Amino acid sequence: MGVVQGSGLGPTLYIVIASDLKPLSVINILFKFTDDTTFLVSENTDIDISVEFKHFRCWAKDNHMIINLLKTKEIVFL
User: Fold this and answer.
1) Phi-psi category of 35—alpha, beta or left, where left has phi over 0 and alpha has psi -120 to 50?
2) Which of 7, 44, 54, 74 has the fewest CB atoms within 10 Å around its CB?
3) To 5 degrees, how large is the angle CA 33–CA 54–CA 76?
4) Taking all residues of the chain, what is their mean pLDDT, rounded to a whole number?
């Protein structure tokens, strides 16, 4: 927050800030790239995706970051 979008400093700051963001379950996978975060949550996991997302929202609030819910998507593969 407060960093101009598209600046060279933004991705580096995000990597530093997001270094403590981890999934609650060791089975779930978290990808962080530039200013984007992706959770992969299996159907057979000990922590549900809704719980992981709540954890992520709390982390974002604690770190004064905003989650753009209009760009947030859930994709289910069968």
Assistant:
1) alpha
2) 44
3) 65
4) 80
